[in-house]
Amino acid sequence: MVGGSEQHEQWLQPELQLGQREPAEQQHSYLWVRGSGCLRIYRLACGRVDEKVSYHHLLSSITPQSMNLLNDIFAAYYDARRNKRNTESQMKFEMNLEHNLMQLYDELRLRSYRPSPCICFITFDPVQREIFASSFKDRVVHHLLFNYIAPLFETTFIHDSYSCRVGKGTLMGVERFEHHLRSCTQNYTRSAYVLKLDIQGYFMSIPKRELRELLRKEMDKKPQWNKMIDRGLVDFLIDCILLRDPTSDVRIVGGEEDWEGLPPSKSLFRSTKGTGLPIGDLTSQLFSNIYLNQLDQFAKRQLHLKHYGRYVDDFYVIDTDHRKLARLIGLFRDYLHDELHLTLHPKKISLQHCSKGMTFLGAYVMPYRRYPRWRTIRKFRFRMGQIEQLCSREKALNRRQVLFLRSVINSYCGYLGHFKSFLLRKVAVDRHAFYRYFFFFGGFYVAGLKSVGVVMDEVVSIL
């Protein structure tokens, strides 16, 4: 709900009355506010409180399902704004928060919601990619759908699928890869080989109709889950998000030269009609994981591969028999082509002995140790060089700037602390300029903040 106390309600009403920040269409929606053991309802017009109405006046339109939907929308909003509080789209949405959320509630309840146009641009860090950025309102809807269906499909995923899952990620993927390597070689006392494969243009090649049918079949298998949620709303959201064509109504940011060098298999504008998911949406990550779960089940249930793992479209198999791994290449290629309508990348097939080392998810894993890859090392050195220059300035930095710099240092050093990188961290931060503002704990894992030399003045943009 919006609030849980009388004090919160007293704060909320004047805020809404002052909320005439920008005009909205003349339609009424309703805001439920929990007080001290009671439920009060306000009718909203143009983003402000128009009048208080009685509970009995709206009794026919308020149901447990509608109250649950309102709760779910607020929960999805808080999920969507996490790590997005300072973005322009989030702040613009929050300026008229109550009206925007209630308008979204009405659209979902009446099934009139339609996604807004996306912003398309090219990013070059770490590699060249085509990104479709949805509006913040659509991000709230993405989190709403994710909260509905992710728990259902989580029970169907294998343990060694690491992308877009709570409590998992790239670091766990690296640790599990190392675990499988140690297990297969009996702690590096036996010989083993690593097969690493990749899917060509995966996101741009996902067939939407087949994915929609897969979602429907899996949801039909869970009658208990269907009783707990509004299945009609879930189907409506899936159709709105999955079956739309984001390239039909899009605002492109950047010049044509940004797309130069981008392979056709990595652009949604060049994908076949009815295929492709936009990179940048939370739902695209979830849908891609659900679709390739079929590959995971094939590897585990039919091929009976013990040492197998996958992160998005990168997957590996570890075995002591290199001939067996060589045969798997053809099996995976045929299954992807015939069953999933995907293509195994012909230039990203790697089969080599474990002693040679293998890169996976930004790590270079070798027997008894793992290293960060060169791209991470170069970026770390570049950032630390920037921070050293800032700390060397004659004018003292203000406290907020120093806190920000400390967060950057701790982020890099904390990540690199999972690898064999002590000398790398020491050489980069064990310098006089850093000690003007920071001190370092043993091993250069964490930077602490000194109070000397830090002044409080206006905040300026750095880095």
TrEMBL record:
Belongs to the bacterial reverse transcriptase family. Keywords: Nucleotidyltransferase, RNA-directed DNA polymerase, Transferase. This is RNA-directed DNA polymerase. PANTHER family: NUCLEAR INTRON MATURASE 1, MITOCHONDRIAL-RELATED (PTHR34047), PROTEIN YKFC (PTHR34047:SF8). GO terms for molecular function: RNA-directed DNA polymerase activity. Residues 1-365 form the Reverse transcriptase domain. PROSITE patterns: RT_POL. InterPro entries: DNA/RNA_pol_sf, GrpII_Intron_Splice-Mob/Def, RT_dom. It comes from the Bacteria. Pfam families: RVT_1. The keyword Zinc-finger does not apply.
